[in-house]
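This entry is retained here.
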Amino acid sequence: MVFSSFTFLFRFLPCFLVVYMVCPAKWKNLVLFAGSLAFYFYGVRKTPMYLILFLISLLLNWYLGAWMVQAADEKHRKQRLFAGVLFNLCPLMVFKYSGFFTGRGLLLPLGISFYTFQMIGWLVDLYRREIRVFPSFLHFGTWASMWPHMSSGPILRWKDTETDLGARRVTASDVEEALRELTIGLVMKVLLANQLSGLWQKVGTIGYESISTPFAWLGLIAFTFQIYFDFYGYSLMAVGLGRLLGFHLPENFHYPYMACSMTEFWRRWHMTLGSWFRDYVYIPLGGSRCSRWKLLRNLLVVWLLTGIWHGAGWNFLLWGGCLFVMIAAEKFLYLKILNRYPWLGHLYMMILIPLSWLPFAVAEIRNIVVYLERLFPFFNAPGAYTWYAGDYLKYGQMYVWPLLAGLIFITPWPRKIYEKYKGSLISAVVLLMLFWFSIYCIHMGQDDPFLYFSF
């Protein structure tokens, strides 16, 4: 169920909130668990067996956790952890990656990449004894299936919501703050991401071979903005919806396009995924406190896994490999220079960020090559490319306002201004107007599924 849809905003959400708010505190986890399963069932209603798969995952992970906690010694704890990790990875491998080898992909169960990593993190935290009190199945199921983050994250750890699961209280200020964040996220998605997606679609419609160099850059910048506002908008809505239920979900973005290096960028983008790989893969491999060759190995493993996690395709392997090269080069060669001269870092990232999204935007390797030839025409034979054409003028004029808005809203300044005046009546009026304008755009059909639903 898409957050930016009439079904969610005017049916599921109000109906669920009425039941959730009026029920006694001791029943809230049960209501949330049941509502999350209903939310999941709606998302997989065309393949209802996926709900059974999800329930089996919940039950077995809870039992696997209890089984590991009861192990007699460290050897048995490790064996049971290995069995649990393998159990979680097998369905992900079958559904997400079988098509890579057979050529016939399966329809992905909703949120499988996210809940698989969440379950593995749960088992590892139990193994490390970071979870002191083993929870009831109701608490565990509520945490694992909570509908605000189920589809596309953020990836939760047990510690993120342990306190809120035990006792929570929603105040009037919480409701106000939640609705504000929900509205801002909706605006990011509908009024920015969806509008900018139109420009990127124009590039595909015309054909990569037929676009000019300026238009190739304009289209890639549009996609760069689109993927940010799409996923950032979803994350803001998820955090706002969590707050509405009494939970404090972790921040997932922190102005990544303001980073001065690719290393810093990935500390700011999809932060719950980055911290998951850091804590459960990178540091256990040795992190950065090792020899240079081992550090290179650790970085290679993390970034190839990051690429594979996002999708089963050569483009995602290429994407992960490119990120490895960029970040390794920074660590060993010039990261200190970028940190010392932020202006240089920003110029560097202005080129690198759009280029890093190219394998994400264009799936086929041969088309990536074609697009690179359009971006950098001087690598081609003279006459084999177009420096100037009317395409970028035509479509640049059509999308000038979404592009300018995107350029402004990737910075922290709009949020700083909002925080300064958010207690005023005018901010409430502006948000209300933006909310209903977003609803109008959805009604007019200007809406798309969130990009990260496909991962």
About this structure: The chain has two domains: 6-168, 174-454. The chain has 20 helices and no strands.
